[in-house]
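Students often ask why we bother encoding 3D structure as a string. The short answer is that it lets us treat folding as translation between two languages. Here is a chain of 267 residues written in the first language.
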Amino acid sequence: MHGTGQEDQTVGGAGRSGEPPLAGGSRPDRLGMPRSNQANPAPAEAAARRAGEPPERECESGGAITPPDSHSSDAALARAKKLLRAEVLARRRAMTEADRAGAGRQLRDALLEMPEMQMAGTVAAYVSVGTEPDTRGLIFALWKRGSYVLLPVLQADGDLDWASYEGPDSLGSGPRRLLEPTEPRRGVTAITSADLVIVPAVAVDQAGRRLGRGGGSYDRALARVGPRIQTVALLYEGELVGQVPAGPHDQPVRTAAIAGQGISRLR
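And here it is in the second language, the structure alphabet:
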């Protein structure tokens, strides 16, 4: 499903239900991002406000990410995340459709070749939205080769329920203009049955710390995933950064799939 709240996630899937072409029609979203925060990120922040990124997969509540020490450290963490997020999203919006489409195909092919993906009977994924790397071609390819694909359903409280993907016609409109599976819901713990979990991200660092859209939905979901399960964040080139600001409740990922670079094992 759409990436709904990861520490700052997004729930994926802007309203589109057509089956994505496996070879040439996927439309990823993304642009590279610098390896460290710029000294003056205000222009990127302003650009984000002006352009208005499409509805995110998660609620923009920010919730349980604060260190227990002080309000000032909490505010500093929230600001650091906001600035990095604005910078990366501005770069994604600057990408051309052709660049995004090419990045989506690269990610699809790299993921399908992962040994863990080839052995996975059940894969939890999400429907991309806005400028996110496209996942529709990947989801369709997994389903066609016989994998059981779970997609998220954003709940009113920001948590993620899950339902199966049964082809392009099994997707319908959800909240915030997202595409969600219309099959019976399996419950928030259904993600624990996945052999591999694909999650949205704005940026990731080498320690596996992941920056989402700020709703916390995926932090809740990832907290239910066992330590031996492969978790993969999808990125454009340049979005594997030196350090992602993170709090005690932000859940890390084990792997990043990077357009043009392939699979990067983390932590």
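Translate back mentally: The longest strand covers residues 148-154. Keep this in mind for the problem set.
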